[in-house]
Amino acid sequence: MQSSSHRLRDMEQHHPLLSAGGDVEAGSLAAEVIVGGPHSGHAAGNRTLWFIQDSCGMVCAAMTWFLVLYAEFVVNFVMLLPAKNFWYSLLNGATFNSLAVLALASHLRTMLTDPGAVPKGNATKEYMESLQLKPGEVIYKCPKCCSIKPERAHHCSICKRCIRKMDHHCPWVNNCVGEKNQRFFVLFTMYIALISAHALGLSGMHFFTCVKVQWNECSEFSPGVSVLLLIFLCLEAVLFLTFTAVMFGTQIHSICNDETEIERLKNEKPTWERRMRWEGMKAVFGGPPSLLWCNPFTGLRLRRLMLLAQGRRGGSEFSV
């Protein structure tokens, strides 16, 4: 029977046998914000907020919020509020703003949710012995973050962690899309595509209405400013609609085929039991089909948020 040290040396050359469902989440604190005092240590593990400290990702995430809020401004103050039809303004305003709130909430949940990170540095002799491996059984060790790598996990050079069922790293949400936050990313792309299509439709209706009357009667802004704001909104909406619609389609395709984008690009042969179509959708979104699938606030606990708020008053510590 091989010793534990022998297994550790051999890990990097063997196929992983540790299943992705293994519960090895304890101590997953790296590359995230630890809410609490500087001496809280691992006791703060249940009060952590995942956040990647990547400058490019933070800029892209801030740009995403800016562009959504810009669309809110143009739709509300340039098109809907000056409209003479009250019900037209009310219904479209309620629809657009509700979708925008859901899009931003989905963005936050994607960005601040642990995508399924494997604990860093858990490939120790003590942990190897606790696994009670059978003779000849081997598991895979990631040489970059020194962690035991579950099946279907891949290392992200930006997050500096191995991520379970990693699909890709998206700078627009400043996070990896993985096992635990894929549903929020799918909702984010869906709601952004919907508000983009809605904004395009409202812009077309506004142009058509203003052509028949004086531009000064269509908006409180000058005609030149109104046209520039609408043109930029249309360009933004077309780009966002194209990008997010494609991403939404690829994500649904990946879920229904139980194959991540990395696995597809690497042409990895599945060694796991695939969950096809509805089974894959249920695994990602949780439970049978319902309106809860479209709710980005699902699983958000008020008590946990209150604990996070209390921890912030005591100071915060960044752990990389």
Automatic annotation (TrEMBL):
EC category: transferase
Which GO molecular function annotation, any one, does this entry have? protein-cysteine S-palmitoyltransferase activity
Entry membrane topology: Multi-pass membrane protein
Catalytic activity, EC: 2.3.1.225
Q: Where are the transmembrane segments?
A: 56-80, 86-105, 184-207, 227-248
Q: Where in or outside the cell is it found?
A: Membrane
What is the catalytic activity of this protein? L-cysteinyl-[protein] + hexadecanoyl-CoA = S-hexadecanoyl-L-cysteinyl-[protein] + CoA
Gene Ontology cellular component list: membrane
Broad class of where this protein is predominantly found:
membrane
Q: Where is the Palmitoyltransferase DHHC domain?
A: 141-267
Record keyword tRNA-binding present: no
Keyword annotations for this protein?
Acyltransferase, Membrane, Transferase, Transmembrane, Transmembrane helix
Q: What is known of its domains?
A: The DHHC domain is required for palmitoyltransferase activity.
Give the protein family: Belongs to the DHHC palmitoyltransferase family.
Protein name per UniProt: Palmitoyltransferase
- Natural source organism: Myripristis murdjan (pinecone soldierfish)
